[in-house]
Amino acid sequence: MIEQSVDFVYPEDELTHEENLYREAARRFLRIMNLKADYVANAKNPALANWATSYALGLAVCDGMSITNRACQLNVSPQALSKSIKAFQSIAGINTNAYTYTNGHNQ
Hints:
The chain contains four helices and two strands; from the N terminus they run H-H-H-H-E-E. It has helices at 21-41, 46-57, 67-74, 78-92; strands at residues 101-102, 105-106. Strands 1-2 form a two-stranded antiparallel ribbon.
């Protein structure tokens, strides 16, 4: 991902050391949103990347549609979709098995 301009000040670089849980949560979620946008924008197959990131994040839009059915809709294999999900999870540093294949079956 491309770093911000030199004018950008990272929150951890600020002089105040007050703990603000809301700010920390906002900073983490902003990072995830930026990673998702970057992952989709730079993908060879943006539709696949969009759905992979949505499944990786456990978004409600994925409810009711299995990885197999979504992969069929996207004209890719379930393994390709699952691999893309795992790739985004690795980039984002998240670990959720809600929608990924593990040990040969969907959890």
